[in-house]
Amino acid sequence: xxxxxxxxxxxxxxxxxxxxxxxxxxxxxxxxxxxxxxxxxxxxxxxxxxxxxxxxxxxxxxxxxxxxxxxxxxxxxxxxxxxxxxxxxxxxxxxxxxxxxxxxxxxxxxxxxxxxxxxxxxxxxxxxxxxxxxxxxxxxxxxxxxxxxxxxxxxxxxxxxxxxxxxxxxxxxxxxxxxxxxxxxxxxxxxxxxxxxxxxx
Length: 201
Prior knowledge:
Blueprint: H1 4-18, H2 21-25, H3 29-32, H4 38-60, E1 75-80, E2 98-102, H5 125-130, H6 139-142, H7 159-166, H8 178-182, H9 189-196
Antiparallel strand pairs: 1-2
């Protein structure tokens, strides 16, 4: 007969030899008992990571180039305004008015250029004989061919011109132009002379 300590060992060995699967799945005691909030914390981190990714995609979306394909920009073909001539709305040369548009792209998408076609034909002929056509577009040349009655406003009296060009905030720390900028009737005689172009300061 075997001693009692060997009997227990032999029984344990026979039990282990019969099934080893449960023994393989056993984990150390410190890993078996996780804190109750462990899985909730993991889900919170996963949801937070997804939200951060969505936020980054939303912010980076406008930074991508708008047009990834090679499609041309939108255009509006020349469209003549029907019925405008009957109402007296005509171009300078008497033809029907019209419009067309081709959107810009890249850095020029927000910049606009107004192109006046066939303007040379309606510019003052005496100016064209002595000057470049681009010089004949300036008011000093166009006004020579204007016949009265005609009213031309001196842009120097425009409140925006006074604020931005004649007396900007940085030019007068003593604020002497403040009331004149707000209302032209508050200007003194010296300020009126400046607006008339007679004085410079």
